[in-house]
Amino acid sequence: MTAIETRGLTKRYGSETALEDLDLTVESGEVFGFLGPNGAGKTTTIDLLLDFIRPTEGSATVLGYDTQEEADAVRDRVGILPDGFDLWERSSGYRHLEFALDSKGVDGDPDALLDRVNLDRADAERPVGDYSKGMCQRLAMAMALAGEPELLILDEPSSGLDPHGIRTMQELIREAAARGTTVFFSSHILGQVSAVCDRVGILEAGELVTVDTIAGLRETAGVGSRLVVDVDDLPRATAIDLEPIDGVVDADTEGDHLRVAYTDPAAKARVLHRIVESGTNVCDFDVVEPTLDDLFAAFTGSDGSTRPVDTAGELEPTRAPDGPEPVISDGSGDPQITGQASDIAANGEGVDR
Amino acid sequence: MSAPLIARKDFEDAVRSRMIWAVMAVFVFLMVVISAGAATNGLEDAEATEIISLVANVGGQLMIPILALLVGYMAIVGERQSGSLRVLFGLSHNRWDVFIGKLASRLGVIIIATVVACLVALGMVVALFDSFPAQELVAFSLLTVLLGMVFTSIAVAVSAMASSRMQAMAGAIGSYVVFTLVWHPMSAVIHYLVEGGLPGYNAPEWYFFLLRLNPLAAYTQVASELADQFIWGIVGWEGTVEDVPEETLQEPNALLLSERVSGDLPLYLHDWVAVPILLLWIAIPLGIGYWRFKRADLN
User: Fewest CB atoms less than 10 Å from the CB: which of A30, A33, A182, A268?
Assistant: First the structure.
């Protein structure tokens, strides 16, 4: 069974095209990432699926129901976390959950929902007007989960969340997927999509560029992650033959750093080990993830610089090629070596309840 | 049917709004002042129905429409702009539920406000006057509640059609401007085009009917008849766009509809006709508002 199917879905506003001829199929039970810069048409697609706006051409079904003819049936079975919303600031968190459960017509336990999103029960008694952006996001997620929807549609679910909140959100998505819920979520940050998704669709300027698995994307696009190592003796380090190491595809110098491209995350440790073994001191190291820009450049054939500055500015910050300062891990990317331990810890503790 | 859920939730939020309470307090306070003023006007022969003209003037023509527009204009566009409409849709509600739920809640607020105001005025009559003309006062109260519902419906309809707060505000203010500043002069212009002159004291009956199609005019016309005393509109257009004798402006009771129309009033100028007119002013804007909301791209 397909969870989402769109055929030639097109939305135009006057002469402006927000979405062009989208053919997309999301299978039931999968976690599908919808990736693209802001303004690419992700929210337009979601709005079309929920009959918030009407297509200029084409049609779509959600869980087998036509999005226009059977919009009510769609909404009964879907949980939504929209992008950019206000809640009713004078009502308490509990009142919101009660309203959500009543609306979905189910007898649920608000506390269970609170626990799932890691929201404090004492906080749930306060009016939502006092909440931080992250708390609102969690509450809205709890509301979306009310009634165990068959499909969760999350629009930029990690906006406004701190690294811990992002990790909770990713856990929630994995947990929902484990229960058999289909998850469709949009993001403009590659790392967040790659962390949880089975498959990814890339949207740019209203057009679907490609649909593939994360690994498949990287392979096709030929952009891998890079390890940038700061060593005390560069010539000596350069002499080390790193390329035969399993998972490493390229080793080179970049400014006064060593740059190693790899496809297998485990290669990082092997590379560092090898450098240290050869008697060179590693002063610092850093992981550079391929950005959405890199992927777009690979798929669309543009070098990214032709794109409008304002769009590019919304993307995940691209590390300056010669900037040696470490990228702060926000928990969203393929974790750094140091980041990995905490990630595993977070997974181990488990938010599954 | 999830409209009752939305109505309840929206009403709770409205009740928690300090703004609504502040406006209500000012409103009730004014009612008390007006009623007290009517009673202690220094007029020996002050009649209880006099309170009708005062309440109709300040309350009916000014406070209630403005309060109703204020209560209603953000009802739907507010949720649309803040994105919480998406949350509502995600919780299985559809456009009809949202529209009806919001309308019911805001109507509830304004009905309570007008009923309280009328009860205060009635209480003042009991306290300050010897007589209690129950029939007129009750009819006037119902008419006032109906007027509040008209403006709430217009505001909610505007709110459903608007895609931004500014549009909704413009629509709400615009509707009030049309009824107070545009309608009467426009009617006079139509009269000029048809009859070749400004409407005189004994203008044709259709002209009065045209004026009465304006809900505010329907309200004041009937309130005038109930009070047996001419009630001026917010702007006294009779003195500018109509060609009526100077002395009638000094003695405005001569401007009562029943005085200006010679002989028996035609059926469509009977008092009760104001009720279907006001009801149409509820139904038609809501119909158009929902029709537009149903088709709109809500983003």
Answer: A30
Q: Do the domain assignments include residue A299?
A: no
* Strands A151-155, A207-212: pairing kind: unpaired
Could you state, in order of their start, the residue ranges of all structural domains in chain B?
3-173+282-295, 184-274
pLDDT in tens, A4-47: 999 999 999 988 889 999 999 999 999 999 988 888 899 999 99
Hey, of B79, B84, B85, B89, which one would you mutate to test binding to chain A, going by the most A CBs within 10 A of its CB? B89
Among A242, A344, A220, which residue's Cα sits nearest to residue A294? Answer: A220
Q: What is the dihedral of CA A211, A215, A218, A220, to 10 degrees?
A: -60
d(CA A323, CA A315): 18
Q: Do A86 and B83 touch (CB under 8 A)?
A: yes
Among the partner residues B83, B90, B297, nearest to A79 by beta-carbon distance: B90
Is A53 within 8 Å of B2 when comparing Cβ atoms?
A: no
Could you tell me if B298 lies within 8 Å of chain A, comparing CB atoms? yes
Tell me what pLDDT residue A300 has. Answer: 64
First to last CA, chain A: 28
CATH number for the domain including A197?
3.40.50.300
Whichever domain contains A338, its CATH number is 3.30.70.100
Render pLDDT for A220-272 as a digit per residue (tens, 0 to 9).
766 667 888 888 888 888 888 888 888 887 788 888 888 888 877 788 888 88
Q: Which of A75, A83, A87, A97 to probe the B interface (max B CBs under 10 A)?
A: A75
ipTM reported for the complex, 2 dp = 0.83
Dist. CA A211–CA B152, nearest whole Å: 50
* pLDDT (mean) for B60-69: 90
Question: What is the model's pTM?
Answer: 0.81
| B19 close contact with A: CB closer than 8 A | no
